Amino acid sequence: MTSPASVTIAGPASDDFTQAQHAAWASLPVSLTQAPASAGLVAVDGRSDGWLEALEDAIRPGPAGVLVVRPAAGPSAPDIRAVAATAVGTGTLVAVQATWAAHPAVPPFARAAAERLSGITLIDSVAQLDGTRHHRWADVLLDQLALLRAVIGPLEQARFAVQHEHGYTVDGAIGAGAVAMSAVRSATPPQAARLAAYGATAEAHLIVPSGSTTATPATAWFVDSAGAAMQPTWYETASRASWRRLHRATAERPGEPLPDLTDLAGDAELVAAITANWQARR
Amino acid sequence: MTTPLGVGILGAGPVTQAIHLPTLARLPGQFRVVTVMDIDARVAELVAARAGAEPTQSVQAVLDHPGVDVVAVCSPHQFHAEQVAAICAAGKRGILCEKPLATTQAEAEDIRKAVTAAGIPLVVGAMHAYDPGWLAAFDACAGWAGRAHTIRSTIVLPFNDRFEDWATEIASRPAPPPQGAALTAEELAGRIRGLVLGLSIHDLPLVRAFAPTFNWVDHAEFVTPFGGVISLTAGPRRVELIAFMRPVWRPDWRLEAWAADASLSVSFTPSYVHAGPASATIRDRHGERHITASPYNGYEGEWRELHDLVSGASTPRYPLSEVVADLRFATDVADQAASAVLRGVPQ
Predict the structure, then answer these.
(1) Of B28, B36, B82, B229, which has the maximum CB count within 10 A?
(2) Are residues B279 and B313 in the same domain?
(3) In chain A, domain spans
(4) A232 secondary structure, DSSP code
(5) Residue A181: which of A192, A168, A163, A190 has the closest Cα?
């Protein structure tokens, strides 16, 4: 058992964000305790303006860890890498809670997919978004790329990209595998991201619910010549899972950087390249 | 009680064996198979015997047969246009032509002229267009179909032999295309054209129910062993076509459409197996509805339609102009996708 860590929020934060963090902390009363001053673990609202500056400010005092929740697209890859370097300097671990990639079902799904799939030739992913809310497509794409990276690996080529009022399409590749990614907006459920990876003799399917505060499980299954097998369900929110992950990392591997900010920088680079292309297209 | 219509069949490959003969066997009051033609005498004999029909190697023998009222064109794609025109000229009462109706727009125009002049019904074997599950689902979403902004056709299937063998005992099947060798750009372009006209085409008439025309193919990519990803701009709409055949057993055949305030997901059973109808879910401000339909599949729907048209019991669900427009849409997608592959990506 690890020792309890003190937690707080740094920088600007929405009411929804604050409420979500308090709910997650309340569900981990042995591991986390609120301590507004000198907290060991700090939360940064990634959907607030200037979140990267807020992150850098939070890192500077040298807390054990910082969780960036749902970082929005915008900051450049070099700027994100610079902040990552600052975190290395202070010995602060930075975890990123992306909308879908942070779901607790994703890491075991990714491990199982890596074991079971070879020769992937097609990856198909659709993000279905709440049509009653405004979405910045760059933010959604950043989240979808994070899911793709978490499950299969980073997108290596973007060959076609288009956005429209109700969504976008990005076609690209990872190695020899074609990647088809879409986002669609509709007032109808389910609000979720789905991803299917087709290998030579097996395939993997994942549906991750949207929303970091719902404990709705992801649906994940694998198909091979023996049949189809469901992955066990995790009734845990992405928020709670992210706090547990950061707490464990700071307790067990203090000072050993997590790959999250470096990965985020890679995806931010892709988003910048793709959105520049689609904006020029029409 | 009416006399069953006599059926002549051109081409006795797996489609005839696994799809049409089992379907016609379920409709004994409406149809009776009279003759089966194949260029391979042995196949013609084997398949004709299954239906108690006469075998022949001659197209003309089918056209001249006095007992043949309607003809099913199940020959290779490149013969469809010529054979449909010949059936029209022979004075037959109706045609069921397997998809694609033709492989070029010039052929489609020839067919339009011949069928119009003959004044006989023509049904194209796009089975999902006659699937009662699809028809009920589309009726239920007709109010918002014009507002759909994204249409996605996903056809992920194992190779055909898996399902052919569950529908019948196949007498013969064509050799599969060679696998493994590196393909030239021209071969890739040919494969993706074949993919559109052989696989994606199943649901293109359904896509057209939401997006009647398209502006251009934005991106097309061939996927090994046999598949592709094609993106279209259709006015304000996006159309995504995913079609993929691979050795894994699980089929996933879906058509999805999203509007700002509603969405549709239709799930189809695989080709060859007689397991329809499709199931569908519609979501809108009223909640979620699951569509149930009459318990027959699209193959049977095609033949029921042909019977009703020949007997004068109904008017065409899909007028000839729409059938030709479906083909134009498909050949345009196929040609542009092939060009996109040839040009290489990104465009």
Answers:
(1) B36
(2) yes
(3) 5-98+239-258, 106-236+273-281
(4) P
(5) A168
Tally of domains in chain B = 2
Q: What is the mean pLDDT of residues A48-60?
A: 97
Following CA atoms B316, B322, B323, B328 in sequence, which dihedral angle do they give, to the nearest 10 degrees? Answer: 180
Peptide bond into B236 cis (omega under 30): no
Q: Is the pLDDT of residue B160 over 90?
A: no
Is the CB of residue B122 less than 8 Å from the CB of residue B323? yes
Are β-strands B70-73 and B5-10 bridged in parallel, bridged antiparallel, or unpaired?
parallel
Helices B132-145 and B298-310 pack at an angle, to 10 degrees, of: 90
Domain of B314, CATH number, reads: 3.30.360.10
Q: Which two tokens stand for residue A149?
A: 């990276």
- CB atoms B149 and A180 under 8 Å: no
Question: Which residues 161-220 of chain A have a CB within 8 Å of chain B?
Answer: 162, 164-167, 169, 171, 176, 178, 180, 182, 184-189, 196, 198, 200-203
**Enclosing H/E stretch for A278:** helix A260-281
| Position A2, amino acid | T
Q: Domain range spanning residue B219?
A: 129-173+181-343
Condensed to tens digits (0 to 9), the pLDDT of residues A150-166 reads 999 999 999 999 999 99
Report the pLDDT value the prediction gives residue A2, as an integer from 0 to 100.
60
Cα torsion A139, A140, A143, A144 to 10°: value is: -140
Q: Is A5-98+239-258 in CATH node 3.30.450?
A: no
Q: What is the pLDDT of residue B277?
A: 94
CA-based nearest residue in chain A for residue B235: A164
Is residue B346 scored above 50 in pLDDT? no
- pLDDT attached to residue A280: 43
- The architecture that CATH gives domain A106-236+273-281 is 2-Layer Sandwich (3.30)
**For residues B252-267, average pLDDT:** 97
Do B333 and B221 have their domain in common?
A: yes
**If 0-12 CB within 10 Å is exposed, 13-18 middle and 19+ buried, where does residue B105 land?**
middle
Minimal C-alpha gap between A228 and chain B (Å): 9
